[in-house]
Amino acid sequence: MRCTLKSLVVTFMAVAFCTFLAARPVVAAESKEGDFEYLYGNHYCPACNYSDLVDPQFHADISNKKAGAFARIYVCSAGCVDKIKKDIAKYYTEIYRTDKKTGKEKPALDLKNKTCPMSGEAIDGKTSIEYNGMIVHFCCADCTKSFVKDPEPGMRKLLPEAKEYKFPKKPEGQGNAHEGHTDHDGK
Ligand SMILES: [Zn+2]
Ligand SMILES: [Zn+2]
Question: In what order do the strands lie in the sheet with 134-138?
Answer without folding.
Answer: 59-64, 69-74, 127-131, 134-138, 109-110
